[in-house]
Design goal:
By secondary structure, the protein is mostly helical. Helices cover about 60% and strands about 0% of the residues. Helix 5 packs across helix 9.
């Protein structure tokens, strides 16, 4: 009875690290369907409603001040150390490095640049849209507020919308966007939603953002993730261009390596007549010839070296010869 070998956990890990022979064909690229277009329009309208509610100093601004006066970091000071570490999940540098490392491995294993290009496009959209809104509205944060009850808009700040929250939505949401199975997409969507929600509440707890900043950051990040399928054709064209450039460089390097490098010609200069005569008259070193064919020990003639102390033996005969009869 033949039994299959039982793989250990380490064997399974190394099996996952192996590259697939070719690009998988089962990975679906999200399309911009009507349902998604409706979600994009509704999210954009909600974005505009939050901005308008802050501009007119509505109930949302009053709620911001009430949360700020509550001072959550003083009410629950025992979790302050944990929130300080947790909020790092929304910082651009550490999260981008971690996610880029994971997506880089997926790009290498699946023979495609789409994961890395999708991450680059999403972060570029995040910098452009959120950065422009931050500096365009110039809202001050709770720690720098000047007038109680005001919206603190157009005063040189840069916190509206919350960059930490929007970055958490995009950076962790791109993992769910690029998931290869429906089950993985559902789980990663839930994980990214909980993570971004926690990052937003952590900024409110620390007092670095108003509650309305966090709401607008969530909506801004969600808007980028919903609109990302519009840029899939651009990502596909960029991938094709990069692979074509790689193939051209490889062919150029291979053609350069296959051409033999010819050595420069050696110019022989004849010697003058006097130097030729001197070279002919110069003594030459004795030439040592190679030894002849191998002979058996019995065929060799014994030679007694000169000056040997051994007395001669006239009765000794060489080996192999017929010995005389003894008397």
């Amino acid at each position: 009875m033949r039994t299959e070998p039982k793989l250990t956990r380490l064997d399974r890990v190394f099996a996952r690290l192996d590259r697939e022979p070719e690009r998988p064909a089962h990975i679906d690229v999200p399309k911009m369907s009507r349902h998604r277009i409706v979600l994009v329009a509704a999210t954009a309208a909600f974005y505009g409603a939050i901005v308008w509610a802050v501009v007119i100093t509505s109930w949302l601004v009053r709620l911001d001040w009430q949360v700020m006066f509550f001072r959550p970091y003083q009410q629950w000071s025992e979790i302050h150390w944990f929130v300080d570490y947790y909020v790092v999940l929304g910082q651009r540098g550490p999260t981008a490095v971690m996610v880029a490392a994971w997506l880089g491995w997926r790009s290498w294993r699946q023979h495609t640049l789409r994961p890395l290009l999708a991450l680059g496009v999403s972060l570029l959209l995040l910098n452009i849209t959120v950065g422009a809104a931050k500096y365009g509205m110039g809202r001050l944060g709770p720690h720098y507020a000047t007038v109680i009850g005001s919206n603190e808009m157009w005063r040189g700040g840069d916190i509206f919308p919350s960059g930490h929250t929007a970055n958490a939505v995009v950076t962790w949401g791109i993992l769910a966007y690029l998931a290869s199975t429906a089950r993985a997409q559902r789980w990663l969507s839930a994980v990214s939603a909980v993570t971004s929600l926690g990052v937003g509440l952590a900024t409110v707890y620390l007092g670095t953002h108003w509650l309305s900043d966090v709401l607008l950051g969530w909506v801004a990040g969600l808007l980028i993730m919903l609109a990302l399928p519009w840029f899939e054709p651009l990502i596909a064209r960029a991938e094709v261009r990069i692979f074509e450039l790689r193939d051209r460089l490889r062919s150029r390097w291979s053609s350069t390596a296959s051409v033999p490098v010819s050595a420069p010609p050696v110019v022989v200069t004849p010697l003058p007549a006097d130097r030729e005569d001197a070279a002919a008259r110069a003594p030459r070193a004795p030439a040592y010839l190679a030894p002849g064919p191998h002979t058996a020990r019995s065929e060799r003639t014994p030679v007694t070296p000169a000056g040997s102390r051994r007395p001669p033996h006239p009765e000794r005969h060489p080996r192999g010869s017929a010995s005389s009869a003894h008397p």
